[in-house]
Every structure is written in structure tokens, then in C-alpha cells.
Specification:
The chain is an all-alpha fold. The chain contains four helices and no strands.
């Protein structure tokens, strides 16, 4: 079980690196100008990936810190590309703003998805009050 969890984190880390590095390069090189690139790549594609990451980590019961993998790799790759190549992949101020935005999106889906809770059938309904609770002496 530990190997599966480690493989899932490693898989998510590798996808995050590929998206963070290749996404801006492909979008810059081929077809979109600055504002459209920000909307489609940073907003729609990476935002959707962040929403899915929260769902993924919740669905498979992985640890909470996993939702930080993509925003951190996105920020670090942008920072290191600025150090190494002299220019960042994404505009400097947008990169860190969107990294925080991705954490919030992943947090929404990580916390908000309750359809796959393992104890969903054991929860006590409180719509009509606590009528069926017993004091444990039965």
C-alpha cells in the first residue's frame, strides 16, 4: 500500500513538472498571445488541473499536503527558469498569484467532495434532530 501511495505522489509530481514546464512553452511558441495565454493556460487548463488534483487526492484517500504539489512545482519551475534562463515562463507576478489560486481551487475540491467518504453511511442525519440516538445502555 505504501508503494502505491508513493507512486501516486510521484506520478502527480511528474505530471506537475511536465505541465508547468511544457505548457507555457507550447502556448508561447505556437498560437496564443499574452492575455489569451493567461486566460486559457493559467486559468482554464491549470485551474482545471488544480480542481482535479483536489478531487484526485480526496478520492484516493491521499494526504492533504498533496494538493500543494502542483502549485509548488509551478512556482519553482517558473523561479528556476528565471534564474537559469534569465526570463520566467510566466509573467513574474502572475506566477505566484496563480499558484495561490491553484491551492485555493484544490482546497475547494479536496474539502468539498463528500460523495466518496468511507463513513458516509455511518453518519447520523440531523435534519429531524437526534431522535434515534441511544444512551448506550440498550
Amino acid at each position: 500500500m505504501v508503494k502505491i501511495i508513493k507512486k501516486r505522489y510521484l506520478f502527480w509530481f511528474m505530471i506537475s513538472i511536465l505541465l508547468s514546464a511544457l505548457g507555457p512553452l507550447i502556448f508561447r511558441a505556437h498560437f496564443l498571445d499574452g492575455s489569451r495565454r493567461i486566460i486559457w493556460l493559467l486559468g482554464v487548463i491549470f485551474g482545471g488541473f488544480s480542481l482535479y488534483s483536489g478531487y484526485y487526492f480526496r478520492r484516493f484517500g491521499l494526504r492533504f499536503w498533496g494538493i500543494f504539489i502542483f502549485p509548488l512545482t509551478f512556482s519553482l519551475i517558473d523561479y528556476f527558469s528565471k534564474l537559469v534562463f534569465g526570463s520566467s515562463l510566466i509573467t513574474y507576478s502572475y506566477a505566484y498569484f496563480f499558484a495561490a489560486f491553484y491551492v485555493v481551487l484544490a482546497l475547494f475540491t479536496f474539502v468539498g467532495d463528500d460523495n466518496h467518504d468511507s463513513d458516509l453511511d455511518k453518519q447520523i442525519p440531523v435534519d429531524d434532530g437526534f431522535k434515534e440516538l441511544h444512551d448506550g445502555k440498550n
